[in-house]
UniProtKB/TrEMBL annotation, chain A:
Protein name: Exosome complex exonuclease RRP46 homolog
GO biological process entries: nuclear mRNA surveillance; poly(A)-dependent snoRNA 3'-end processing; rRNA catabolic process; rRNA processing; U4 snRNA 3'-end processing
Source species of the chain: Linum tenue
InterPro entries, sorted: ExoRNase_PH_dom1 (IPR001247), ExoRNase_PH_dom2_sf (IPR036345), PNPase/RNase_PH_dom_sf (IPR027408), Ribosomal_Su5_D2-typ_SF (IPR020568), RNase_PH (IPR050080)
GO MF annotation terms: exonuclease activity; RNA binding
GO terms under cellular component: cytoplasmic exosome (RNase complex); nuclear exosome (RNase complex); nucleolus
Location of the Exoribonuclease phosphorolytic domain: 16-135
Keyword Hydrolase assigned: yes
Subcellular location: Nucleus, Nucleolus
Automatic annotation (TrEMBL), chain B:
Gene Ontology MF, one: mRNA 3'-UTR AU-rich region binding
GO biological process, one term: exonucleolytic trimming to generate mature 3'-end of 5.8S rRNA from tricistronic rRNA transcript (SSU-rRNA, 5.8S rRNA, LSU-rRNA)
InterPro entries in alphabetical order: ExoRNase_PH_dom1, ExoRNase_PH_dom2, ExoRNase_PH_dom2_sf, Exosome_comp_Rrp42_subfam, PNPase/RNase_PH_dom_sf, Ribosomal_Su5_D2-typ_SF, Rrp45
Stated family: Belongs to the RNase PH family.
Region annotation (Disordered) ranges: 298-384
Keywords linked to the UniProt accession: Cytoplasm, Nucleus, RNA-binding
Name of the molecule in the record: Eceriferum 7
Keyword RNA-binding in annotation: yes
Residue stretches making up the Exoribonuclease phosphorolytic domain: 58-162, 191-258
């Protein structure tokens, strides 16, 4: 049973692991990024836009293709599910009408999995898309929040913690392009853009209140993450 | 390589619409004429610009040995050309280039007896260690064979397998010790076979060392020589291509053995650095690796002492003292030049094998428990 402030590696429940991000690491790929949170590390590469769309895809728009490569072993259903979730997430942040009838491939390679893998991959893919210059509406930041047995919310679990928790949620929030917005400019239905949820995947059992608490905590953490990401992208351009 | 090529305008979206990359006629002519006027110096890229991830994992299972070699362990190499390495690499079963690469490295390592297989034997005729090398190609800058070879050697040198001992009534019970109890052992590697690739062009017997991707697209023939530092030739592979006079081949062999010495030294230095860093990390935290799925009840039938509880320790524990206000962020911008150093990358990427120690532990324990079921070596158990 986990106490409120007693995580194995000494973090507080609200404290995500150390973040490390590098871009433009591969030479052949049009865009590449590596993203690591603690021991979880993901490498993403983007090729595109390439001519033509796949079958059954709308030729009026750009098509996004995600290839998920696990660290070892065959590609199975879990990997296909991750691909699908990532594809839908990326589709919602990209401007698909700029390059119609093209395909952009995102290849995600899992280097190490120590919990919160899908958010890490989404963050890496987003950074790689920026590196490749794919037109996007805004960026996305992802985080994992889990609910412990007694109902407290813990951020960014390790694999061991993920398995011990009652439930966890992967949340992806939008990250708007401008750091200082005039009030009311990016409101959607009266709420700021950042309050929306692009993607939410949950595992396990949690009550509605707990889920909303997760969302609140996750959004706060993502706001900080957005700042960091924005600063680093601006610094390097 | 010292040639600066006219680079294709990669930045614009339009050029990317061409799905297959062909060197433009201009580029081809440029390379050929430059080579003809001897502009390209035989300068080996000590650090190949492309890198690949290498994992040795899940191969450390106890399996039945091959019938004709009951005293030796087994080693298998799996090559996977990831689509991220090159736009022309397709997902799916490995194509012939991938297979050829795997086979060449396999020949170099196995045929030359670089790794001591007999030390991998646990119970003669019954149980041996099986090593599996997974090569993931991440970035194709040309000359994949040499780079993959270096990666495989580095991984083999930094690999640690759990120690096991025989016990029980008739000496038939095998106990696999977790890394906390006994330090894992390195593999015994006798020598390092280094692959050196040459490219031949159709104009005037031009030969280059370590061809880049562009040169590979233009060259008319290739030869890979696998030598070790003491000058012994482990393998030569020249599959077709333009005919090369004998004295050119001899020249290549001499060049190769010179380069092999330099590369061996580089690998050894890098491995040294990595091992030191790994050892110092072990001292800092008391427990080494983490078990994601090992449960405490998973015991082996025979006697085993030592800490049963697996402590989770974050390798960043000593570095993070931050609170949620200041996220310590290390942003590293690595420029796409030849400065990318494989040792650092190998360190990053080979480090996770620590984690696999415990993951594989579960598999090996299962293998021991179900010894009678004769678990197959290559089948991987998916951790849930």
């Amino acid at each position: 049973m986990m106490m409120e402030t007693d995580r194995k590696d000494g973090r507080t429940p609200n404290q995500p692991r150390m973040l490390s991000c590098s871009r433009n690491i591969l030479h052949r790929a049009h865009g590449s990024a590596s993203w690591s949170r603690g021991e979880t590390k993901v490498l993403a590469a983007v090729y595109g836009p390439k001519a033509g769309t796949k079958k059954n895809e709308d030729p009026e728009k750009a098509c996004i293709e995600v290839i998920w490569k696990p660290k070892t072993g065959q590609i199975g259903k879990a990997e296909k599910e991750c691909e699908m979730i990532m594809k839908k997430t990326i589709q919602s942040i990209c401007l698909l009408t700029v390059n119609p009838n093209t395909t952009t491939s995102v290849v995600v390679q899992v280097v190490n999995d120590d919990g919160a893998l899908l958010p890490c991959a989404i963050n890496a893919a987003c950074a790689a898309l920026v590196d490749a210059g794919i037109p996007m509406k805004h960026l996305a930041v992802a985080i994992c929040c889990c609910v412990a047995e007694e109902g407290s919310v813990v951020l960014d679990p390790t694999k061991l913690e993920e398995q011990q928790m009652r439930g966890f949620a992967y949340l992806v929030f939008p990250n708007s392009a401008l750091s200082a917005l005039p009030k009311g400019s990016s409101l959607v239905d009266g709420e700021p853009l950042e309050h929306g949820i692009i993607t939410s995947v949950t595992h396990g059992v949690m009550s509605v209140d707990e889920y909303l608490r997760c969302v609140g905590r996750g959004r706060a953490a993502c706001a900080k993450l957005s700042d960091v990401l924005r600063r680093s992208l601006q610094k390097s351009e | 390589p010292s040639i600066t090529l006219i680079s294709a305008p990669e930045a614009s979206m339009d050029s990317r619409l061409a799905n297959t990359w062909r060197p433009t006629v201009n580029e081809k002519k440029f390379i050929e004429t430059a080579l003809a006027s001897n502009l390209r110096i035989d300068d080996y890229n000590r650090k190949p610009i492309e890198y690949r991830q290498l994992t040795i994992n899940f191969g450390r299972q106890l399996v039945q040995p091959y019938r004709e070699r009951p005293n030796e362990g087994t080693m298998s190499i799996f090559t996977e050309f990831s689509p991220m390495a090159d736009p022309s690499f397709e997902l799916g079963s490995p194509g012939e280039a991938a297979i050829e690469l795997g086979r060449m490295i396999d020949r170099g390592l196995r045929g030359s007896r670089a790794v001591d297989m007999e030390s991998l034997c646990v119970l003669a005729g019954k149980l041996v260690w099986a090593i599996r090398i997974d090569l993931h190609i991440l970035d194709n800058g040309g000359n994949l064979i040499d780079a993959a070879n270096v990666a495989a050697l580095a991984a083999l040198l930094t690999f640690r397998r759990p120690e096991c001992s025989l016990g029980g009534e008739n000496g038939q019970e095998v106990v696999v010790h977790p890394p906390e109890v006994k330090d894992p052992l390195p593999l015994i590697v006798h020598h390092l076979p280094i692959a050196v690739t040459f490219g031949f062009f159709s104009t005037e017997n031009t030969m280059v060392l370590d061809p880049t991707h562009s040169e590979e697209a233009v060259m008319a023939g290739r030869m890979t020589v696998t030598v070790n530092a003491s000058g012994g030739i482990c393998a030569i592979q020249k599959a077709g291509g333009v005919g090369v006079p004998q004295r050119e081949i001899m020249r290549c062999l001499r060049l190769a053995s010179q380069r092999a010495g330099l590369i061996t030294k580089t690998i050894k230095d890098a491995v040294e650095v990595f091992n030191k860093e790994r050892a110092s990390r072990k001292i800092k935290r008391h427990s080494t690796s983490v078990a994601a799925t090992v449960s405490v009840e998973d015991g082996i039938t025979s006697l085993r002492e030592g800490p049963h509880r697996q402590e989770k320790s974050n390798s960043n524990a000593e570095q993070t003292s931050e609170d949620s206000d200041s996220d310590v962020v290390t942003m590293q911008e690595k420029l796409s030049s030849e400065d990318v150093k494989p040792p650092t990358l190998l360190t990053d990427l080979a480090e996770p094998e620590e984690q696999q120690t415990s993951r594989v532990k579960k598999t090996t324990k299962d293998a021991v428990k179900s010894k009678k079921a004769r678990t197959r070596g290559e089948r991987r158990r998916a951790p849930t």
